[in-house]
Design brief:
single chain; alpha+beta; Jelly Rolls; five-stranded mixed β-sheet
Amino acid sequence: MSFVLRPIDTVETIAPADFAAGYLNPRRPLVIKGLTNNWPARQKWTPEYLKEVVGSKVVPLYDNSKADPSKPINSSAAQMPFDEYMDLIMREPTELRIFFFNIFKQAPQLLDDIAFPKDLMGGFLESMPSMFFGGSNSVTFLHYDIDLPHIFHTHFGGRKHVILFENKWKRRLYCIPNATYALEDYDVANPDIKKFPALDGVEGIEVFLEHGDTLFMPTGYWHWMKYVEGGYSLSLRAWDASVTRKAASVYNLAIKGGLDSVLKMTFKARYAQYRERLAVKWADRALAAGRPV
């Protein structure tokens, strides 16, 4: 046995009242296949078009390697002109990916090609749309977003494999203390249960996103993503209406973000090893107690 993964709920379109009752309020993930039907981006954002509007701006690239304990989280592995990178991911497999790229600073006209789904909910951070790019074989490690937004994640190009977990499973996922990501020593798509027994029976959701699909990821959801083919995605972020959730967001940014970076830079490998040992201890303890079920 391993993870217990079920398919995600999928609709073509959904009425605002049904979305609120079935997904937003109970914080359940959903794929909306037709949300972008009226977006010019759905047909317009080809690799050639994006190369034309962004050009040769040099962008930081990330790979699948485990984070270096001597560097801050999300340190880049390489750099490359954007147009050359686009040619690379569409031509051949690569681990290299672009993380949290505000493409609209380079090409603000792209904002005209999308629409925030304000009929479904409010609270969108309209100044923070961001894009993610990857070649086949590139992986986004298991984590949840530190600022705890709701996310509408629209994919373009080839398929993208996504696995989601509710935040209640974080201890069993070997969550790193003072951080929003998990131990990077296991393959989320095919975990070694003998080596990481706390993963056994953890319940999640699995989906393969196709071109134009929009994934609604509720606040606090853990997510792991792998590009099956070269492609790119757009994330639109929105605040949860809960004051408690907003307070948790501020706490995460101040403590899990700021303090963790200071400790990591100060103590480097010793701190990284201590946190990993603690993550294993917490996972074993949660498994023995049968949590969270």
